[in-house]
Every structure is written in C-alpha cells, then in structure tokens.
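Friendly challenge for the regulars: who can give me the structure tokens for this chain first? No prize, just bragging rights.
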Amino acid sequence: MKRSLLAVTIALVGCASNKIEITQSRTTSPGPFSRLAVFMSIPANGFDRGIYHGFQRTIASELAACGVEAAVVQGMPADRDGDAPTSDARLIIRAREGELATVTTVDQYGNVLDEKAFKHVDLALWLELRENKQKRVTWQAFANLHLEDSGATVGENFAHRVVARLRSDGVLDRCR
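First reply, four minutes later:
Bragging rights claimed.
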C-alpha cells in the first residue's frame, strides 16, 4: 500500500510544474478540410526546440487519424488573410503575451559557462483556424501555458490538447 501511494504522489508532483489549458474557444460553421497548414509562432529565444518538434510530430499524427494531412511550419504565414495554396485551411498559433525566463551561469571571473538555460515560460496563446473555401475564420481559441520543464513531451501534450479541443468543438468530425 505504501509503495503505490508513493508512486501516485511522485506522479502528481512531477506533473505539477507544467500547466497547459485551452481556456475558451468559439466555432462558427466550420466546413470539412483534408489538408491543413499549421503555423506556430512562439518565442524561441532560449526556449527548447524539442517542444516545437514534439508538437509537430504529435499534431501531424493526431490530425492524420482524423483524415487531415498537416504540414507544420515554424513562424507566421507571409499573408495572414491569404489562401495557403497547398492546403484547404490554416491554423495559426501565436503568442499574445508572455514571459520567458532564462538563466546565464558565469564563473567567479565573469566567464559565461551556460547561456540562456531554460528556466520557465508563461505564455498566452491565440489560435485561429481559417478555411480557404469559406475565406473566413471558423474557429478561434485561447490557451495558457505555464512550463517549468521543456522537451518533446511538453509539445506533445500541447498538440493533444489542441486536437482534443478541435474535436470537442465539432471542427474535426472524421476521427477514428
């Protein structure tokens, strides 16, 4: 009994440092799409690129299970309101506001030993799905991220949350 209680306590403490939540969303008559361009523009200065790669891998596989082929691009599209020629729709994820804390470690002589080590990040994100055929935004959401850990798992968890919200809002309706 003590051993299982300890394992549960460790699992809860380990997960407590990261919080990813989609706080609100709005859907307006989404149409079907089979190809999605995902643009992700979040601060990367000192921020672990593993988060981006975990997100990229996971969102592509989860959308594929819903009959959607996804291409993930780091950064913003050149024309926010224009059509993406190789996709039916585009999902833009960008930071609205936030704070990225990094630490620079120096020795007693002032020599930099470790520059821009990840410490924590608090971001408010804005998500927008624009369908090319309808030429309008059909889904919007806001998300908050508080991260004290970094790595691919964080990106995977964020991708899971985004796809789960798209499913629950009725945007993705062909999922296995």
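Residues 18-168 form a domain with the Rossmann fold fold (CATH 3.40.50). DSSP finds three helices and six strands in the chain. Your move, everyone else.
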